[in-house]
Amino acid sequence: MFSLYDRYQCAERIRLKFCRRISLAGCNSGIVPAMLKQVLDLNDSPPLGWQLPIAGEYHKRNQSVIIDMKPNNGAEIVLCELDKVFGFSHPGWSPIMFRLAQMYNQNVDDDDMDFDKQDFVCPPDDELEIIYTMSYLKGSFKEGKLDGTWVFPGRSSTNGLMLWPDAMTFFCEQIEKCDPGFLDKKTNFIKSQVR
């Protein structure tokens, strides 16, 4: 669920108050296609990567775009601010990646029952955890004009995100530019492999 919050300076922290629901997608009301339309040039045609500085633009208006990552889960609250949207448009569709600043992530127990998703104080910047998530939109552009509906895929067993080498390279490059070392994390791997 995507919402617009008003930002207020509160001592040394920022307070966010719910303003209204918004749409990220959709060629008529979505903020992603609306912002992309403003930066397209007549020479722009896919395959082509792009970036939208969502937080930078909305902070100028003292607002934030907040995503409730688990809106129907009564046991866990996960709220993130949408910082940037990256896209790599192909003809007809656009894989996208969100850079998010995690504002709140807690299981709801007796101590947290008074947390108000509609009005809360942000953690200090140095406590924000950056995370990424990906999806795609059914839309693209050609010769600098939007093409398609620019909506998220519907619920289906076949709506997975496919990334060809150019798109995967673009997204990895953007992560490294925004968060150097983010992709250097050590991971574990199952030792026994099916042969």
Quick structural summary:
The chain has 195 residues and is mainly beta. 15% of the residues lie in helices and 42% in strands.
What labels describe this entry?
single chain; 195 residues; mainly beta; nine-stranded antiparallel beta sheet; 9 strands
Question: How would you describe this protein?
Answer:
- The structure is a single chain.
- The chain has one domain.
- It is 15% helix and 42% strand.
- It contains 3 helices and 9 strands.
- The chain is globular, with a radius of gyration of 18 Å.
- The N and C termini lie far apart (43 Å).
Explain the layout of strands and helices.
Layout lengths: L1 E9 L2 E9 L9 H9 L8 E5 L1 H6 L3 E6 L7 E14 L4 E14 L11 E3 L7 E14 L2 E7 L13 H14 L17
Antiparallel strand pairs: 1-2, 1-4, 2-7, 3-5, 4-5, 5-6, 6-8, 8-9
**Beta strands, count:** 9
- The parts where pLDDT drops under 50 for at least 5 residues are none
Beta content comes to 35-45%
Terminal Cα separation, in Å? 43 Å
Structural class: mainly beta
- Fraction of helical residues: 10-25%
Alpha carbon gyration radius:
18 Å
Total separate domains: 1
**Largest sheet: number of strands, sense, barrel closure:** 9 strands, antiparallel
Query: Counting H and I runs of at least 4 residues, what is the number of helices?
Result: 3
Shape by Cα distribution? globular
Question: What is the mean pLDDT?
Answer: 91
The run of helices and strands is: EEHEHEEEEEEH
